[in-house]
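Re-run with default settings, no changes from the original entry. Doing this only to confirm the output is reproducible before filing.
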Amino acid sequence: MKQVHSFPTLAGPLAAASAYATGYRESKTNLHPTATLAQLRNSFGGDLPAKGQPGEQVIADLIKAAEPGLVGNTQPGFHAWVMGSSHPVGVAADWLTSVWGQNAALYQGSPAAATAEETACDWLLDILDLPREASVGITTGATMAGFIGLAAARDELLRRAGYDFAETGLQYAPPVTVFVAEDTHASNLAALRYLGFGTNNIVAVACDDQGRMITDDIARHVARVSGPRIIVATAGHINSGAFDDFHALADLAERHGAWLHVDAAFGLWARASVSTRSLTNGIDRADSWSTDGHKWLQIPFDAGFAIVRDSQAHRRAMNITAGYLPDDPDDGRNATHFNTELSRRARGFTVWATLKALGREGIADMIRNHCDCASLLAHKLRRLPGIRIHNDVMLNQLILSFDRGRGDADANRMTQAMEAALNADGQHFFRTATWQERCVLRVSIISVDTGPEHIQTLAQKIEALWHDIRR
């Protein structure tokens, strides 16, 4: 039989990619894309070749087509969103993960991947000082981690109410009420929708000016409802960086038999540093937590962690079984017990490698540095008239607006003008957002390379630009 296609050897394409990759970050001086959508479509488009092309040429073509459309989120001047900068050791481990090509669903499918993941999960619980009996699912990010944690919550609460969700399904289940902050992250609402919850099942709780749930308000709402209840708290508000009162929410959950889930996409890592650990007091009393690895931990995209105190509830919600899927009691970890995926990338290798490269002290130092940088920027900007800092700077986030005293509409225009001015030279990447009915400039300090010297430069740049813009 004629062989249709012979795969190229790894050496050529990998050598080409490696030669380019080692110098990419040093050469990425403009953090903004330079190509238009039409140009990118033209570069990537065209008819698929009838015959395969040499691997080195394909990689060269990919670089040429992609580079003008890349964003510099691995650079210290990137502040638009909370995106990690992909630690170099994690990147190297990610390359190996692709070279090895393992499907990390089952222990027997890849004992090495399963064991690396098992060890990394133990390290995570230790670093974050969460209950050691908890189970961890490594998944794509905090959205799916939240989905997993909330699935465990839904199924376990229904089980306690005498309802077998696995047998009867959601259609005839007792109603479950979910309490979220009125300012909750959109990913929580998405996860709830995927799990079959509609707006009538969700109670929005009033928040203070930092986005924290007002505990008296949620207490009133919870007391009015009977039946299964889920409370979704926040550790590290997406704009302000604020933390809910976890002790108060845990007390409330215990009184009413509710499940407390914490959306901690990046705020959970405050536990890793003594300088910020107190922000998370009481968070260990929750029933489940969702967090990202590709944000503050700097693991290459994508990585997230679903952590559930009750490992059996976690497994009941997620376990995938079939006659062809081995589940020997002498095997190591089967990721199918804790995740939605049956075919899955061996993310445990990059998690293990990044944790090992940073170490406990490196993670703590990185968290402290970013929070110190945020405080330094706030200190520099507070003395400048017309620049307003809207959040209590306690983490790595600042929310700014620029106001000449000519009304809200003018302040919104000034904030948008500052965004454009900061982005103009390509050295920084900022985006505005709408928060509390005003236009604000988000400042997220997240790159592993960002330090006080970058913040000093940024503060001077903002001062000079504001002097010109406000006139």
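The chain has a mean pLDDT of 96. The longest strand covers residues 438-444.
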